[in-house]
Amino acid sequence: ALTLLVIACPGALVIATPVASVTGIGRAARDGVLLKGGEPLESLARVRTVAFDKTGTLTRGRPAVREIITPAGAYAQFRGDGTPAAPLPEAVSEALALAARAEAGSEHPIAAAIRTAAGELAGKRPEEFEAVAGGGARALIGGREVLIGSAAFLQASGVELSVPAEESLRDLRSRGRTVSGVAADGRLLAWFGLADEVRPHARDAIAGLRAAGVRQIVMLTGDHRATGEAVATELGLDAVHAELLPEDKSDLVADLARSSTVAMVGDGVNDAPALARADVGIAMGAAGTRAALGTAPGALRGDDLRTLPEAIRLAQRTLNVVRQNLVIALGTVALLVAGVLAGEVHMAGGMLVHQASVLLVIVNALRLARRPQSRPAPTPVTARSSEAAVQ
Fold first, then answer.
1. Which CA distances in Å does 44 have to 258, 260, 379?
2. pLDDT, tens digit, 9 for 90 and up, residues 39-83
């Protein structure tokens, strides 16, 4: 009876899952993906739908002003680094200076692009500033209410668009520009056409996700549909959901989660609700905001999206190892109990086999610490990006 009680204690079963999960989480961290526990790792292995934010996630998140058009037809073109290609018309210069001052207190990538384009034209901070999630910003400058943001935000705030202004807006969008407008006292002053580069390894990451078993890859963006579709076509995404507010992104992620396990990848404050709603939220570590990093149970330590499909494959391998460990643990206990009942297994021999099964489970889990030789290592993570992820 004593032998039966000792032999039937499933020591290997107790550690079968934790040792594999800890090893998998450690391997993922070395590969550039930080996971807050075993549950995100398990969910990641079952992901069949991935939703990406656009700006700062699929793109570099460093848009540059390329064109400025006023309703009266004044036009200015900018170089790739966001600096003017020629002296600015007076109307463009005034609109740019006002926009740069209105965005002086904003951390949004578009705000940084406008300040870069303005250069010395940018003035001191406004008297009042209010960021509107998913729309733009309001500022009070010299007693004037200044609005800057998307066309939908401006119209919802009471700014009327003239026929020339609407034509300019359509023209910019047709060229795949992200468009932001500035208005003062209810009157549109100018449209800003911005361009952002797709991340260099985004296409490889999309192909890697499909190879890892992801069936649907979609984009969720607050930009206009034409802008989003230009990026989606370049990367080969399955669907684009455009002109979304933060709550819209969250609702769409919830809808997708009803039919499959969903991972949401984002970087900004606008993505935080969707990151929290997804089965697995993944924040961009180096480029992500504090809100995104604090909400998501996972984070990429750098900006290389290729680490995401690697993490999914690792999670799948981890679940396979957990299943193997459970078979080893339960199979060993079943055989030992049967041997004890048959009178063929005694305390010393039974304990030897029992401890051997525990060691076998540990060794099996430690295989996860090695990278499969057929796959190259992701781009090394810099100290700077690691520090950003930790913060």
1. 16, 12, 21
2. 989 999 999 999 999 888 898 878 899 999 999 999 999 988 888
Averaged pLDDT, 202-221 = 93
pLDDT, tens digit, for every residue of 265-324?
988 677 888 888 999 999 886 555 566 566 778 888 877 899 999 999 999 999 999 999
Place of tokens 């460990």: 325
198 phi, psi to nearest 5 deg: -70, 140
**Measured between alpha carbons, how far is 362 from 14 in angstroms, rounded to an integer?**
11
What is the 3-state secondary structure of the chain? CHHHHHHCCCHHHHHHHHHHHHHHHHHHHHHCEEECCHHHHHHHHCEEEEEEEHHHHHECCCCEEEEEECCCCCEEEECCCCCECCCCCHHHHHHHHHHHHHCCCCCCHHHHHHHHHHHHHCCCCCCEEEEECCCEEEEEECCEEEEEECHHHHHHCCCCCCHHHHHHHHHHHHCCCEEEEEEECCEEEEEEEEECCECCCHHHHHHHHHHCCCCEEEEECCCCHHHHHHHHHHHCCCEEECCCCHHHHHHHHHHHHCCCEEEEEECCHHHHHHHHHCCEEEEECCCCCHHHHHHCCEEECCCCCCHHHHHHHHHHHHHHHHHHHHHHHHHHHHHHHHHHHCCCCCHHHHHHHHHHHHHHHHHHHHHHHCCCCCCCCCCCCCHHHHHHHHC
Q: Residue 218 and residue 196: Cα distance in Å, rounded?
A: 19
- What is the distance of C-alpha 38 from the center of its chain? 20
Instruction: Supply the pLDDT for residue 373.
Output: 59
Residue closest to 150 by CA, chosen among 164, 162, 161? 161
- Judge whether 238 counts as a catalytic residue: no
Q: Are 66 and 195 in contact (CB under 8 A)?
A: yes
In contact, 106 and 113? CB cutoff 8 Å: no
State both tokens at 375: 């796959």
Catalytic position from the list 53, 248, 271, 279: 53
Question: What distance in Å separates the CA atoms of residue 241 and residue 194, rounded to the nearest whole number?
Answer: 20
